[in-house]
Design brief:
An eight-stranded parallel sheet has the order 8-7-6-5-4-3-10-9. The protein has a two-stranded antiparallel sheet with strand order 1-2. Helix 3 (about 85-100) runs parallel beside helix 4 and helix 10 (about 250-260) packs parallel to helix 11 (about 270-285). Helix 4 links the parallel strand 5 (about 105-110) and strand 6. Mean pLDDT is about 90; it is low at about 1-10. It has one domain (about 15-280): TIM Barrel (Alpha-Beta Barrel). The chain has helices at about 5-10, 50-65, 85-100, 115-120, 140-145, 170-185, 205-215, 215-220, 235-240, 250-260, 270-285; strands spanning about 15-20, 20-25, 30-35, 65-70, 105-110, 125-130, 150, 195-200, 230, 265-270. It is an alpha/beta fold and about 290 residues long. The chain is globular. The N and C termini lie close together (about 10 Å). The protein binds ligand 7PM. Ligand 7PM binds near residues 109, 150, 201 and 268.
Amino acid sequence: MTSNTTVTSDSNLRALDCAGRSLALDRTLIMGILNLTPDSFSDGGRWLDKTAAVEHAVAMQEAGADIIDVGGESTRPGARAVALQQELDRVIPVIESLASQLSVPLSIDTSKPGVMRAAVAAGAGMINDVFALRQDGAVQAAADLAVPVCLMHMLGNPRVMQVDPLYDDVVGEVAAFLRERAACCESHGVARENIVLDPGFGFGKTLQQNIALFKALRGLKAIGYPLLVGVSRKSMLGQLTGRDTQDRLAASVTAAALAAQMGAAIVRVHDVAATRDALMVATALWQGWA
Ligand code: 7PM
């Protein structure tokens, strides 16, 4: 840090205002995953029952989650789109219930502007969009709702993204995409302070491409926005360890700690308690989270 100007413009020293619930960006935050889809690959179907879903979210908060990401649309490779009403039926009752029971903010994992609006009206304080607000009406919804939004890179769409992902320069192309989406959102009224970027691990990337992106996290952070990293239980960790989804805890926690060390503002994880311990240790032993 060479000047006060640099310090105050540093995304690490900011906060996200999630509809009144503030998230200070002074350490790597933990986003706990609450999947309400019947087919999500790593905890599929377990939280379809509303009571069980709410209990799981409460447990994640108690284990140290800083934000809970509620999703009702599967984004697994090969997945088909979910109808608007079905997605609303899955997520809105759970968000209503959690908004009154939890102190941490909720994010809504969706690409549909109608779901964004209903979820924020029901108490969500952040939007997590794997389609980076490219659906018709989504940028306007995010601008109107004025909550933080995570813009993620994905090549193609979930149905085709893993077929044969090709890049000349994966890091350069993902960075260019994220810059373009951030600029587009800002020009349509999304506040710069509300933008979070995510390279989208596993979304149209081979193992080698995912590794290149992970190693480039510091450079992606230099684009100038907080970064969200989601690698928990993903197939890249299976490829590296030879382990099945349910046996990727150590791999996931290691990757989360490394993402924190690389300056990620938020890590999106299934295993909150173990990730919390890892980040406590990583923060203590690594001088300079920034
Ligand atoms: C199959 C593959 C099923 C991947 C589910 C997934 C991210 C996300 C997801 C991410 C952001 C999962 C993913 N991944 N949102 N949503 N970043 N912002 O592991 O990496 O849950 S879905």
